Amino acid sequence: MSFLGPTTILATFLIFCRIGACLMLMPGISSPRVAVQVRLFIAIAVTLALTPLLLQSVEPAIADASPFTLFHLIVSETLTGGLIGLLGRCFFIALETMGTAIADSIGLSNALGVPIEGNDSVPELVTIITMAATVLLFITDQHWEILRGLVASYNAWPVAQGFGPRLGLTQLTDTVTIAFVATLRISSPFLIYSLIIHFAIGLANKLTPQISIFFISMPFTLMGGIVLLYFVSKQYLDLFMRAFSSWLVAG
Q: What is the DSSP string of the chain?
């Protein structure tokens, strides 16, 4: 009975606040394609699985705590977990942004598909890229690294320390920079292809103004982009997962 005392129950709830908020925003599990009940059950299951490992680091912070202190800890833990989930989601937001740029570059921006990580319609190419990245997230066992990072977060951000807005903003800025630089680097072949092909089309249009070169060249631009995607898609996803994995290990 002493094991299931009020302190243990409150500590478990605090752990759920951080883990639940993280999984609410972390890519893959937080997708709208996953039912809300399933996400809730996953958060509860992960909380109960990690509670024995984290209980000793959480209980001292709530021992003899006042109701106001408990409320402050609940809000702080929710914000901390949400920040961790948002940091991981930044990589997939950057991937979706650059995927939209790729679709615009090769002429596939008008073919809208079902979103994977959001609710707004995105080009079909973005759906394919984000779906492949989400599948690789689980195939390569990166979701276990997410759980390892959650456990390690209690050393980096102890419960008693509370949520630090300045440190959180610094982490968010650094992660956004890393994510967009990584996705920009792996998307550079398509951007360079777009510059070259549109420069050639514009030059040809100036030389032959009587012919609508732009409309004639659209199938060739699209075909060239698809061929380029065929050759670089494996390296594209591999480099993205390496960047995401490196952040999980170091972040």
A: --TTSHHHHHHHHHHHHHHHHHHHHSTTTT-TTS-HHHHHHHHHHHHHHHHHHHHHHHHHHHTT--HHHHHHHHHHHHHHHHHHHHHHHHHHHHHHHHHHHHHHHHT-TT-EE--SSSSS-EEHHHHHHHHHHHHHHHHTTHHHHHHHHHHHHHHHS-TTT---HHHHHHHHHHHHHHHHHHHHHHHHHHHHHHHHHHHHHHHHHHH-TTS-HHHHHHHHHHHHHHHHHHHHHHHHHHHHHHHHHHHHHH-
